[in-house]
Amino acid sequence: MNFSSKLIEEAVNEFSKLPGVGKRTALRFVLHLMKQNTADVNQFGNAFIKLRNDLRYCEKCHNVSDKPLCDVCANPHRDQSTVCIVEDIRDVMAIENTQQYRGIYHVLGGIISPMDGIGPSDLTIESLVTKAATGEIKEVIMALSTTMEGDTTNFYIYKRLKDYGISMSTIARGIAIGDELEYADEITLGRSIINRTPYENTLQMK
Amino acid sequence: MNFSSKLIEEAVNEFSKLPGVGKRTALRFVLHLMKQNTADVNQFGNAFIKLRNDLRYCEKCHNVSDKPLCDVCANPHRDQSTVCIVEDIRDVMAIENTQQYRGIYHVLGGIISPMDGIGPSDLTIESLVTKAATGEIKEVIMALSTTMEGDTTNFYIYKRLKDYGISMSTIARGIAIGDELEYADEITLGRSIINRTPYENTLQMK
């Protein structure tokens, strides 16, 4: 594409580095910015620079936090011995929205993915093992994606933690609430039969 | 959404001001930026600030240009008496890609849209009328969107220019090349019959 301006070309190139953004969408974003006033565009650009330079992580769970301890880890009403392992802040937000979980989190910062060059040492697994070694963790719930990478990461964490006498589980996989059986894929349906839940348990849930 | 960090919240808010970007996509962009190194994110943010502060427009056609005259207007091989009226730089790029047009452009910077509060005075129509008054324009081709706003703008420009003895046309509307008749909408098909082209003319095209 010939943008007739180096400045536009640079801005389009920067936008198209974002996931899922091609040159066409990037140009649409750039044209939008060109119509905004200078102060707004300065604020736009500086928000990301400030984010990258000033962002801090919780010392305990590695979630994003402006304070040394995040709100969840600092909350005395949360069960500090139950740890839910998640990939990133989006999963923390999703689980917090359910209002069903009263433990704390451990944010890995990604999942093991050899295709993307991400190995165990790129994640916060060592810090999890250190915490486990002190005996402060009683239960671990693994809430990673149901992909091959997620399963690999689950298995790696299981191997690293299995000698510390911690109760380990993964979140339940099965038919989503409101879904029709006939549209479920075979693997999910098969697993949901193998991992069937005693009916009395479902009665206790609201 | 509770982002557990003011910095993330601000960055998400800035991204979600872009057209077609919601909070969820904005968070995805922010998580991507958080994983980049500081220099890259600085370059990202500064590209837009620089764009907004340093961007210049061609004095003649109002297209984006780093020089006082854009490449098209400065080209002596282009017919300076034929002017194609377009909405923004995207349309210039699209028409240039066809390699079928040898005249110059006039970039309006938008179209008349009372719903969005855009009137004729927000566009570069006065400058077009001034150019027409000097007699340097012989032909005007209106290449705006086939929407109500585009038609309104076409009609407004027609009224402003009709006394200067300029040959005025709009780009042809009809069935797109490669399209099947049965899937064409009625209005397009109807117009393509009214504006039928002598068969000899199509033979001359390659």
Describe the structure.
- The structure is a homodimer of 206-residue chains.
- With 206 residues, chain A is α/β, with parallel strands linked by helices.
- The first copy, chain A, has helices at residues 6-15, 23-35, 38-54, 71-74, 89-98, 125-133, 148-161, 186-194, 199-204, and strands spanning 79-86, 103-107, 139-142, 167-170.
- In chain A, strand 3 (139-142), helix 7 (148-161) and strand 4 (167-170) form a beta-alpha-beta unit.
- In chain A, helix 1 packs across helix 2 (23-35).
- The longest helix of chain A has 17 residues, at 38-54.
- Chains A and B meet through helix 1, helix 2, helix 3 and helix 5 of A and helix 1, helix 2, helix 3 and helix 5 of B.
Q: How would you classify the quaternary structure?
A: homodimer
CATH class of the largest domain in chain A: Alpha Beta
| Helical content class of chain A | 40-55%
The total count of helices of chain A amounts to: 9
Q: What letter string, H or E per element, gives the SSE order of chain A? A: HHHHEHEHEHEHH
Give the rounded overall mean pLDDT of chain A: 89
Strand content of chain A: 5-15%
Sheet with the most strands of chain A? 4 strands, parallel
User: Radius of gyration of chain A, rounded?
Assistant: 22 Å
Any guess at the CATH architecture of the largest domain in chain A? Answer: 3-Layer(aba) Sandwich
> Total number of β-strand segments of chain A?
4
CATH topology of the largest domain in chain A: Dna Topoisomerase Vi A Subunit, Chain: A, domain 2
